[in-house]
Target: Cytochrome c
Amino acid sequence: MQKWIMSGVLTIAVVMAIVLMFTLPGKEQVAEEEKPTMPEVTMDAAAAESTIKAQGCISCHGDQLQGAVGPNLQKIGSQLSAEEIYTIITKGKGGMPSFKDKLKAEEIANVAQWLAEKK
Model:
């Protein structure tokens, strides 16, 4: 009787291990979540400004990006690269929410490039 119970427990453990192997994220997926890859886009300043206004960024960063509740972004390009800005907009940071579900990756990349040019 004990052999049957032990073999049943072992079988369940093996099945659970196989299921976990295929459902847990791999190293590549975890790395992508940690640092999303910025798509290549041609920067469009007018579209970037429009996106910032439409998403309400000015409510925290000010209408001239001078800072308010959020940090001043007028010279953010001298502190962060476009990729770093892209990651922050995508994932959020501190009190800033993530915009990955609100904007397309290309829109975020355009805004990141536009902000990165502010030096």
